[in-house]
Amino acid sequence: MEFSWSEEQLAFKDAIIKFAERDLNHDLIERDRKGEFSWDGWRKCAEMGILGMPIPEEYGGLNADILTTILAMEGLGYGCKDNGLVFAINSHMWSCEIPILHFGSESQKEKYFPKLCNGELIGGHGMTEPVSGSDAFSLQTKAIKKGDKYLLNGSKIFITNAPIADLMIVFARTGESKGFAGISAFIVEKETPGFTVSRDIEKMGLRTSPMGELAFQDCEVSAENLLGREGAGAAIFNSEMEWERSCLFACHLGVMERQLEDCIKYARERHQFGQPIGKFQSVSNKIADMKVRIELSRLMLYKIGWLKQNRKQALLEGAIAKLFIGEGFVKSCLDAVQIFGGYGYSTEFEIERDLRDSVAATIYSGTSEIQRNIIARLLGA
Amino acid sequence: MEPKTIVRQFILSEFMAGHVEDSFRDEQSLIETGIIDSLDIIKLMAFLEKRFRIEISEQEAIPENFDTLNGIVDFVESKTNSPEGKAEKIHLKSAQDDG
Questions:
Q1: A:B CB pairs within 8 Å
Q2: Annotated active-site positions of A, please?
Q3: Which residues lie across from A275 on neighbouring strands?
Q4: How many Å from the N-terminal Cα to the C-terminal Cα in chain A?
Q5: Upper half-sphere CA count for residue A189 (Cβ side, 13 Å)
Q6: Which residues pair with residue A169 across a beta bridge?
Q7: At what angle do helices A66-79 and A7-23 cross, to 10 degrees?
Q8: What does the alpha-carbon distance between residue A325 and residue A93 come to, in Å, rounded to a whole number?
Q9: Nearest CA-CA distance, residue A257 and chain B, Å
Q10: Other CB atoms within 10 Å distance of the CB of residue A15
Q11: Which of chain A's residues have a Cβ under 8 Å away from the Cβ of B61?
Q12: H runs (alpha helix) in chain A
């Protein structure tokens, strides 16, 4: 197994870190307080090529392979303290671009990719419904075919990017088949009659990432906007989850790396009882635990990248990584707050925000409990 | 062993442990009867890829390819009878002859 990176890959990661530190962290305390999305940051990320990283060049992307993408997303998480912006970018890439890349028609790719890559269009996806969360495939939104159109009726909740998105990948039931088999995916543009975004949902963390609800009332979607074939919804959803569980969580790894460096620096500088606090085992043990989480997270993520690069399944590994990194992220954020003490708890030091932002990592992309179920099921339990 | 027998045995051992029924018909819908779900399809794909030396894309992970035993076998045979599949068979045979 090869663990080294090329100079080009490392230079790309470094460039993203420098860019993010320079351009993406302005006025963050205030924007977090107000729950304000950074349009400026979004545009700059588009100019940097981040939004179209895995998309082929002919559609306006960078055509980066998955390992390079994981490394770059790690750099983005390290450099960008605006976890909400990073989350919005990830939703755009893995839950909108990737499904179109893997399941879309040529005309869909030509129509949407150039503007998704240059940031003119913002994407997201609509899966979760008021009564179907972890049991995602029990969704109730219906799409009835009428001639060359589908008529969508239903609603979606907790949808990242909903208030700012131009198009959504919407999952709906097209057939009478049970569970996952009757689900299809549609590309729904925001101007489509019968489609409304009903409210902006306020949250504990990731406050700079807008979240809302979608409503479909006799929403007419052209049959051309069916993504893949009828009944392919579950395959599309599982595919995008594999990407999200590796690339989004690479950003969390980046945050954990930055946090650890800050904690080590603080543990050296801060003196209590006549010595640096890092000399106390109760502090240094936390630092050691943070490092262990980072190294193990990194190994899992790179393994997934390698598997996917070699066109192998990574469902088990994706579930392990999602579970471990999601929970490890929260633990490391708590450790950081504890090491910084009162300063960590105060908003000014920007440590507490990471903790608030981290909590959802055990919920989105499938809760920790669901990941454990997937792991056990794949092991034959 | 015939592909149909191999696939049937895998489904019985992997997905039907604890089910009330201990068998299923060749044309029975495995999805409608709750024998397999979306996660099982992924597991089944991994098994088919390894056992029959085929490559299944995520675009092919759709219910119609995995709903019945006959459907699964037809799908596998369509892959093994494709030009890529035939080349693989020849490669395997020559490797066996050499061995």
A1: 57
A2: 244
A3: A272
A4: 29
A5: 12
A6: A125, A187
A7: 30
A8: 20
A9: 33
A10: 15
A11: 234-235, 238-239
A12: 7-23, 28-34, 39-48, 66-79, 83-92, 98-103, 106-117, 233-269, 281-309, 315-345, 352-358, 368-378
Tracing tokens 């489609």 back to the chain, one arrives at: A195
Report the distance separating Cα A21 and Cα A48, nearest Å.
Answer: 13
CB contact under 8 A, B61 and A238: yes
State whether A374 and B39 contact (CB < 8 Å).
yes
The DSSP secondary structure of A267-326, one letter per residue, reads: HHH-EETTEEGGGSHHHHHHHHHHHHHHHHHHHHHHHHHHHHHTT---HHHHHHHHHHHH
Give the distance between the most distant pair of CA atoms in chain A. Answer: 79
Residues A177, B62: C-beta atoms closer than 8 Å:
no
Residue A64's SS3 state is: coil
Tell me the residue length of chain A: 381
Q: Please give the angle made by the CA atoms of A138, A241 and A258, to the nearest 5 degrees.
A: 135
β A167-173/A123-126 pair status = parallel
Please tell me the pTM assigned to this model: 0.92
Cβ distance B37 to A180 less than 8 Å, yes or no, reads yes
CA atoms lying within 13 Å on the CB side of residue A51: 28
ipTM exceeding cut-off 0.95 for this assembly: no
Q: Would you write out chain A's pLDDT as a tens digit for each of its 381 residues?
A: 778 999 999 999 999 999 999 999 999 999 999 999 999 999 999 999 999 999 999 999 999 999 999 999 999 999 999 999 999 999 999 999 999 999 999 999 999 999 999 999 999 999 999 988 888 888 999 999 999 999 999 999 999 999 999 999 999 999 777 778 899 999 999 999 999 998 789 999 999 999 999 999 999 999 999 999 999 999 999 999 988 888 899 999 999 999 999 999 999 999 999 999 999 999 999 999 999 999 999 999 999 999 999 988 898 999 999 999 999 999 999 999 999 999 999 999 999 999 999 999 999 999 999 999 999 999 987
